[in-house]
Design goal:
Layout (H helix, E strand, L loop, with lengths): L6 H13 L3 H11 L9 H19 L13 H11 L10 H14 L2 H4 L4 H19 L24 H22 L15 H26 L5 H25 L4 H9 L3 H9 L4 H5 L7 H4 L24 H14 L9 E6 L4 E6 L10
Length: 373
Amino acid sequence: MTLPSSARGLGQLAIIKSSSNDIPSAIFYYSQSMFYLVPPSNVLQNLRTLSKQYFTSFLKQISDENTVAIPCANFFDASALFFSLFFNDISENPSTGAIFETIYEHCINDTRFYLNALNENLSLKASLLNITTIFTRSNIDTSNLEENVELNLYTTLTKPMSLGYLFVLGLHHCTFLLSYLIEGLPNNLHALPEKNLPLATPALAAICIYIDFYRSHLETLCIKNSHSWSFAEKQLFYDKVSDLLKLSVSFFNTLAKKMKILSGIQAEKNNPTFLFTRVAETGTFVDIKIRENHMFSSIQKNLAFTKKTVVYGNSQAESSSGFSFCDVVLSRIFLFLKSFDSSSYLSFVVSFDAEKLELFFSDDLSTLGLSRN
């Protein structure tokens, strides 16, 4: 997936995809263009039109009572549907909430939704569209949108059409990708790119998107919105965050000892946070794809791009500093996990043992009146 460095280019891609009847991709490109300094003209109007068109076509596919198959082939298609629901008045169709819940349950329980999207185009698109829906639904910052235009967002949505469940879908996607890599490729990630491991790259890229977004916005979005969630919604959200942290710790501990940076920690007793930060701020091919995207501005402003940016390709597997994409993603995971200290707003604690080069996770939800399943 190649994203232009301007909203104008994204708007053009949206028009091309729309004309070829690839409505989910058109929705994706328009949704991304909202978060650039100067969005394309009529972006919100076009998004609402395409969203309604996509949802209407979806309704037609399931109108036959004998229809059993879910007309979403993968998590990207489902994400486009979820996004579209927030740009149309759900009161026009009483079954919207039930439709959302049906697709939501399939996304939670059917791994094929994620496996079918496990290529660079769909995996990155799905992760970006999921967090865009969350960011837009939260409406935490629309300063870059057209003046005097308000997003038509809804606060009285049928369960589970609410922000907590949208969060859960993204968390579930990210944990699936981490599990996929931990279980299937624990000893080979640092050998990438490998022709026999084509699915690891898009999985890592999507994980990178999620981790960067959570580093920037998880706390703010949680504090701002969780008060309006139901008890069940809040419980599910905290369970999924806990799963994400545990899998991230496991992923880090599985691969981190192969990182070049850790040998420096052992030999020189350097500050691990400083060293991880240095690697994390290495620009990658994923960062180029989202450059100038307002949702990632707090991350992007600290990145160092070089002539040999970390990408996947036969000649550019590492940066000029010798760090691979996996090293960068692991470093960003480390910084994300280190934000969960004893004062964590979610009552999760992650600690780092520099001698053993390991992270450790614990959770205590008793102070929140919640319990672990």
